[in-house]
## 1
Amino acid sequence: MASPTIESILHEKRLFTPPESFVQHAAIKHIDQYQALADRAARDPAQFWAELAAQELHWFKPWDTVLNWQPPFAKWFEGGKINISYNCLDRHLTTARRNKAALIWEGEPGDSRTLTYAQLHREVCQVANVLKQFGIKKGDRVGIYMPMVPEAAIAMLACARIGAPHTVIFGGFSAEALKDRLLDAEAKLVITADGGFRKDKTIPLKAAVDDALANDGVPSVENVLVVQRTKADVTMVPNRDHWWHELQATASPHCPAEEMDAEDLLFILYTSGTTGKPKGVVHTTGGYNLYTHMTFKWAFDIKETDVYWCTADVGWITGHSYIVYGPLSNGATSLMYEGVPRPSNPGCFWDVIEKYGVNIFYTAPTAIRAFIKMGDELPKARDLSSLRLLGTVGEPINPEAWMWYHRVVGGERCPIIDTWWQTETGGFMLTPLPGAIPTKPGSATVPFPGILADVVDLDGNPVAANEGGYLVIKHPWPSMMRTVYGNDERYRRTYWEHIPPKDGQYLYFAGDGARKDEDGYFWVMGRVDDVISVSGHRLGTMEIESALVSHPAVAEAAVVGRKDEIKGEDIFAFVTLEGQYTPSDTLKDELKQHVVKEIGIIARPGEIRFADALPKTRSGKIIRRFLRNLASGEAVAGDASTMEDQSVLDMLREG
Ligand code: WT7
């Protein structure tokens, strides 16, 4: 539960009502209007979603059953025929949106591209036809390992168009991590790029794919489609590797969207858990389309002329739901930026806002904290007056960061939506509707209409106001994950068995601690399990430990999160060595590099401490609580009397 925010959040009392100028044009203008929606939805969630599904989306054929709930397995809109690429593209082409910008893209080196809905549709159809040429058909999985270029979104939409589930693997993952995911998904084809630009360097994506596939490493993969981005020197394996631009050029721009069952698999996205390997979170078509559509529409209060920018990478759920599917389903203009703030251009985000007149800006607390460090001068040197609404996601935002965001970026006129959700939930669970819900710095406020959230104890009983407990969702929602890919049992165990059903009602366990205040506002405190969040990236401590012990020098490893001013948490690893190895700085660096090789740059430990032994209970369990205290330089809290060897603690403290 480590996070820099808890102490300040506990004493936060400020309330910000949305400015009159904002409310005037908002779709949902008053808390009573929100309450009426939420009440109606709570009385009959299935009816509520059915009405919106009929009103907001195109269906080739209507559904037979709105919700089929066999806990913990939900099916939404069974019998309905739908295609999310059709909803994101085709249906806009017969309207005034045909020539509106769908994607605005700014590359890191300063190149840029705008694709209208008509142009995007054309390219998606061409690439869908390329996939078909490789024999990809409905149900075949396609891996996508790409930089932040328009082709990443095109690839996703092309897969969705022909009913081939995609699995996007973030470009910061290593060849090893890529291989694990491609193997688990049994991907038939991989779409990648020669490389990507990252902080004025290039990352060799194609080379990583080559490593993952070497020696028939992923036997299911037959072909690799390569986008040319950095012009890096790459080896093209004959009969396996193909240039995207060459095949796209000759492919037909006509490709009807496949009529998918609402419950057909749309994508798998891997995320870290507490045990073992990352799990493949499964999302299906109809419910996901509806829920990302509605949350984008109401929480971002989208207007026809808005330029909307989410700074996430398409490799994460935020990119899936709120760069690609949610915005495009609404016919919005979604901006994609390839770069990140870097020494050569620390103010690049503010440049992009000014250049494109961004109206809605959605980013992460870790980025905001980094900006605070860089000083107010950078944002103040740019014209940010186009901004109307701000959003944040990924981890609890500390009130200080919220206030800075409000004051310096939002000019005190922009509401902030703090959106709490997860890879598993598909879309926002807790968020203010910005014209209706007054905000409190550090609180994700209230559930989205149709979401029945609560804070309970381990028996499923609601806790009193302001008391800490576990965040749960009490009723299925359209974009909930359907299962862990290929592992129903793991799905059941992870999300539905920590807290038993209460009065016959199943409770979805999110893994977060939270409290609800006297106004019913939720305050999310952070993970209650062995998952840590480094710069908003979710990592399992077990995953990092496994990576460490796979190095010959390491006997045992224990990883905990340590509070970090900017990143929220940083990775702190305690390591015991095999007899023939001796501690040294060189070995520390080698181990850090080893973790980067096994998982990726996002998992590089901030600190490694060598120890002769780890603190354990008499039954041999590592006492992580002590390690967390030690990592943060705090006194070791709690009873140490169960410990096997008291002297171990003293040794670890000294480092
Ligand atoms: C975990 C989910 C959802 C997209 C980004 C991360 C934390 C996310 C918030 C927020 C407090 C948050 C939770 C959650 N989290 N948003 N607004 N306030 N905590 O997706 O990688 O699936 O991680 O991120 O701990 O469980 P993810």
## 2
Amino acid sequence: MPLANGGEITLKGISGSPGICIGQAYLVDQEGIDIVEKYYIHKDRLQKEIKRFKTAVKKSRDELEATIADIPDNLRQHVDILETHKALYKDKMLYGKTIDMIKKDKINAEWALKKIVSDIKTMFENISEPYLKSRVTDIAHVSDGILRNLVGAEDVDISEIDKRVVLIAHDLSPADTSRIQLKRVKGFTTDLGGRTSHTAIIARTLNIPSVVGLDNITGIVKSDDIIIVDGQAGVIIIHPTDETIIHYQKLKSQYEEYRQIITRDSQRPAETADGHRLKIMANIELPEEVKTIVTHGGEGIGLYRTEFLYLSKNRFPEEEELFNNYRDVATAMAPGSVTIRTLDINGDKAISDSSDSDEQNPALGLRAIRFCLSRPDVFKVQLRAILRAAAFGNIKLLFPMISGYKEVIDAKKILEEASFELEKEGINFNKNIEVGIMIEIPSAVVIADTLAEIVDFFSIGTNDLTQYTMAIDRGNKKVANLFNPLHPAVIRMVKRVVDVGKEKGIDVIMCGEMAGVPFNIPVLLGIGPDALSMNPHSIPGVKKIISQLKVEECQEFVMEILEMPSVEEITALMEKRYGSIFSSIKYT
Ligand code: PEP
Ligand code: MG
């Protein structure tokens, strides 16, 4: 429900990318293409109607080609998905069948196309293979383009927008997002999308403030409305009062000034007030983020989420593509290490079609390592690529979502097969790669001592560990207020895993969102993992907090909170004890 204050409306969505912008709204979505009329075509005019359809297809394809040609270098990795869209324009299922239907049913092209797309959607509903299912989204994007040209609806060319606006869209396709001109667009908001959707990922690559997942922003905002986007808070304000605008202008300049200072300071190592050093690393989704890690003082990549490379395609990538990608990241990050996590798809991840998957509980389903073990062919391609890239840089391997011993054994067996094959083929690779597992399922915490015997390191994923421990869907807005890694159960689990690591002599790194929130740092310092890994933009704030804390005090503090029964009490004590230090961090 929007919150209204006088004429202004505040909406809460999901933070897509941090930063604040204030400007005029620009509604991107085209109207009219949903209202498609059905009418019959006389048989003498059928050829003309088919020609009209073909012309619209050609026009849409030409437009897409122009978009591809204009894609800036820093977004070239998204070209593949657009190339797939290009191929779809001549796809038999879409193109051929629409023409057949125009002929057979003697109906107008718009109606035939809509009907064919709807049939395709129904057909794909019964398919569980995620990559095939993801074609539906592509088909919808492509058919929208054709429909727009058929009905003559005006297509808003994002690259032509020249008024420093805030884009408002139902969804931004990869093509749309890649066409955003930073000089002309201040920020954007969308009805759909989550933090890990393509749109949010590209927004972070572009460093453009955005709020996604607003449900119905396109139904509320009109072009030219004044709007404030607070990407950090995941909040937008429509029709802000003069007072609010002044307030946010101030916040914006404070934010920018603060970021400049803190980013400059982040080049220093993370050292506590009593002289302990802690390794601070970064989580990335795209190779381009390596630059941000370096400018924000990261010492390596603690978590490379590799699924996004798969998500940008409608097929599993080839070994060579993966190898090049991993080698480039390792080379760019050298001498820092790069922990490559194997494919973690399905569940709560950013697969656009996961919601129509036939799994009742996708987060408990065929996700991550389970998927990979069920598709050794796909898994082995990735493992070979990682092993090969590891010959060129400091690469470690990480298996996600481990729930038991046998999964690790099975995964390592496929890794051994991959090594054996590479050896036999005489291909250069690193035999001695370190192998770690994500500890993000409670069963893995309980048997951490056993698991520690067969791996080189642990990486604690508090996002999933909190989700699975507390039975709170991490992506469900309705229970988001209950999701808290400071729950005593989660804190105790994290402590146990770190203690096991110390006892067994293996490194423990923390890579969930918990590690990037300054408020959590006293607890984490007290628990004592070997490294923290986080969104590169969070590094400066975390380093600043670390520099003001003393390890011994934090250890005592952890002993106190381990006795506490609830999040509320823990949080209250944290505020009391560290409130003055937290107030030195204005933004996260
Ligand atoms: C986690 O679960 O905490 C984690 C780091 O992995 P992801 O967010 O990719 O599931
Ligand atoms: Mg996880």
## 3
Amino acid sequence: MPTSIIILILIAAIAALAFLLFKKTNEVKKFKGLLTKMKKAFNYLDDQAKMIVKTDVEINRAQEFLDKRLSALDTLQKTSRLISTTLDENEIFHRLKQALTTDLGFEKGLIFILDDKKNCNVRIASGLSEEEIFYITGRLEKETDLLNALKDGNTFSSPRSPFSIKEKILQIFQIEHFVLSPVLAQSGMIGAVFVGNKSNIALSDGDEEFISILANQIGQALENARLFDQVYSSSQLLELKVQERTRQLESALTEVKQISKTKSEFISAVSHELRTPLTSIKGYASILIAGKLGNVPDAVKQRLEKINIHSDNLVKLINDLLDISRIESGKVEMTMEKCRLSEMIDNVHDLLTPQIKEKSINWRMDVDPKIPDMFLDKQQAERIFINLIGNAIKFTPENGTISVKVILQDNNMVKAEVTDTGIGIPKDAITKLFDEFYRVENEINENVKGTGLGLPLAKKIVEAHGGSMWVTSKVGEGTSFHFTIPVKTEQ
Ligand code: ADP
């Protein structure tokens, strides 16, 4: 083979090889580019993975924090419900004990209350020995600066307190992580709540907030319990006083009853003693007036007639007195008979017509026709109307009006009213009006004689029939006497 051909073949082979080399170099370059891209992608993924892990740790931490807060809030809510549903101070501390010793999750806890002498009384303690408690209270009572700072409403905690306070609390309670919060009532600080953990379990801001809320609620619950206690003891005291007063009143009433009985007996005895000689005086005066013992000069006759009139007045007074005391002591015999009220009032009107006419008084009478005939002591019942209408005439000026109205009430009682347009009765006299011998000081009473026995007697007769009597009046306008009597249609 000629050399030129060999050379050509070699050149062609070299060219082919060079082409292949060029191609491979290009491919390698391409791979290199891909490799760099992949590396970048791996780096990016690595960063992302790191970030995910970091976020996960943070989420876990936040979750843990939230769980802790939630459980704290749950405990707070439960505790506050527990302590706000009792009004007994001891029970409040009893219910707080479990919260402080286990539920809240602090290693040490203490609640103390200040007594009247400003001594610290420990009501609940957990995680502290007797000696520690004794040491803490002893120190606390001397630390007036700290107590004053608490009194101002400050809560102190290890994460946030000033260094000096932190040091002091550390010395007293011998614990590094703590919250100390005052228990406040309206009167000021009444105690404090302390919680603490050892050096490796730090407290958060949330713990401070949580303990100060709890301390507030304890203050509220204690305040309520103490107020309730005060109210309860004053109500007890009041009840005792009421009982004592009732006893005093009862014994006073018995005494009054006894005095009234003695008075009635005395009046009754005196009246009897007076009536007999008075009857003789009247009898002798009548004999003398009639001239049965010889002629009597006119001047003597006139005096004898005066003796007669005064004796009559005295007999009337004595009879009224006797009746009052008899009714009061229940000694009076009621003679019940069927009476028609309209007839009874007509009779009284007839009896008093001369006086009514003399003063030109208008007479009105309105008796409900539905009122049945009722059983009454006729003579006594008549005296009620005689006294009331007689007074109405006496205290009503000329041309005035007197009306008598009687109605039948739904409760089977008759209600009678004797109303006049007379001078009226002053307010302060109304309460004494039914007292024996009481008469209002006025011009009419100065001129017209009276005993002050008519109204008490009328009232007693009404009461003896099972009713009641009262008066309404306006000075210058008139007076109404009202009384009720139960309707009895059978004996
Ligand atoms: P007396 O009429 O004998 O004084 P009473 O017991 O009947 O005694 O009355 C007591 C007093 O009540 C009277 O003195 C009078 O002051 C007052 N009084 C009674 N009825 C009336 C009346 N209708 N209007 C004004 N005052 C009256």
